[in-house]
Every structure is written in C-alpha cells, then in structure tokens.
Amino acid sequence: QVQLVESGGGLVQTGGSLRLSCAASGSILSVDAMGWYRQAPGKQRELVAFSSSEGKTNYADSVKGRFTISRDNAKNTVYLEMNALKPEDTAVYYCNVRQTIVGIGYVYWGQGTQVTVSS
C-alpha cells in the first residue's frame, strides 16, 4: 500500500501562485508516474500534469506555461507549482501515483486539497 499526503492548497487571488506537494510513503518499490488531477464542482476529474519515471512531463492545455510539475525521487514527493492562477483553476486537486509490481498496475490517490482562486 502507498499513502499519499497532500499539502499546499488554499485561497489566492487571480494572478497569484501556489505550490502543491504530495509525499508518498509505504510500499514504494517502483513508481511509474506521479501526477496531479483536479475536479471542479459539477465537472469530471481531469488530468492537470504528470511526470513519468523517465522524467517526461505532460500538461493539460489549459495549464501549459503556467503550471510546472517536478519530482524529488529521493523524498518520493511530487510538486505542482501553479502561477498566474485563474478563477477557472478553482478545484480540488488530487495527487496520483501509479506503479507496476510483478506486472500488476496499481493506482493511488491522495485525499485532495482545495485550491480556490478569487476574481
């Protein structure tokens, strides 16, 4: 089992910045990818950004150029630096970790952290 603990959410004005952190602990043998999703009220959960084990990153078009995902593999932690925040970025942000053990894929989710951007 892998436990994910998120931090860094909060209330910020339009144009402001926040940094989310997600620390993974437990049975971390090999992590395939770490990333962030978000879910706004009345909407489906969507991918924000992810970082593969090879260091490749991918971003949703809506956050490209504003958000940056990074990883500290020694600390099993993934970060999401969010700049130039907009009201439409308001959502609950979830950390996501994927790993494969003996050919079986596992997906873990954090508890979510609220990000609110005021206009």
Features:
elongated, 119 residues, 60% strand, four-stranded antiparallel β-sheet
Describe the structure in your own words.
The chain is mainly beta and 119 residues long. It has strands at residues 2-7, 10-13, 18-26, 33-39, 46-52, 57-59, 67-72, 77-82, 91-101, 104-109, 113-118. Strands 2, 4, 5, 6, 9, 10 and 11 form a 7-stranded mixed sheet that branches. A 4-stranded antiparallel sheet has the order 1-3-8-7, with no helix packed on it. A hairpin with a 6-residue loop joins strand 4 and strand 5 (46-52). The termini are far apart.
**Subunit arrangement of the protein:** single chain
Using the alpha-carbon principal axes, give the shape: elongated
Largest sheet report: 7 strands, mixed
In whole angstroms, how far apart are the ends?
A: 40 Å
**Structural class category:** mainly beta
Q: Helix share of residues?
A: under 10%
Rg is 14 Å
Mean pLDDT: 94
Low-confidence stretches: none
| Strand-residue proportion | over 45%
**Total E-strand runs:** 11
Q: What string, H for helix and E for strand, traces the elements in order? A: EEEEEEEEEEE
Helical run tally: 0
Topology record:
Blueprint: E1 2-7, E2 10-13, E3 18-26, E4 33-39, E5 46-52, E6 57-59, E7 67-72, E8 77-82, E9 91-101, E10 104-109, E11 113-118
Parallel strand pairs: 2-11
Antiparallel strand pairs: 1-3, 3-8, 4-5, 4-9, 5-6, 7-8, 9-10, 9-11
In short:
The chain has 119 residues and is an all-beta fold. It has no helices and 11 strands.
